[in-house]
Amino acid sequence: MMRKVARKVGKYEVGRTIGEGTFAKVKFARNMETGESVAIKVMAKSTILKNKMVDQIKREISIMKIVRHPYIVRLHEVLFPLSLFGDLAMNL
Fold first, then answer.
1. Binding site: which residues?
2. What are the protein's UniProt keywords (predicted)?
3. CA of 91: how far to CAs of 20, 28, 30, 45, in Å?
4. Annotated binding site for ATP: which residue ranges?
């Protein structure tokens, strides 16, 4: 049985899917610089545009930037193509 090769996104090595919802998948990833384990929320640009979710995503990012709670993931950074949004990297 062959292992899947991890994909690199920015400074993150992205691995297996750890969760999936209607509009996004959550992938396990590791920061290649620090070794820290994170979760990356992957959202398809086509889904965001088709469902007119750009404002909703912007609100989510704004809220996640300020929320600090032991039971809520912490937003580290937002990675996106210049044309829209892509991945939200969050602490596991």
1. 50
2. ATP-binding, Kinase, Nucleotide-binding, Serine/threonine-protein kinase, Transferase
3. 17, 10, 10, 22
4. 50
User: Tokens 């995503």 identify what position?
Assistant: 57
State the pLDDT at residue 86: 44
User: Does the pLDDT value for residue 91 go beyond 70?
Assistant: no
Spatial neighbors of 57 by CB under 8 A, at least 6 apart, are: 43, 48, 85
Domains and CATH numbers, the chain: 7-91 (3.30.200.20)
- Tokens found for residue 27: 């992938």
Tell how strand 12-20 and strand 37-43 pair up: unpaired
* Contacting residues for 27 by C-beta, under 8 A, at least 6 apart: 14, 15, 16, 17, 18, 39, 40, 42
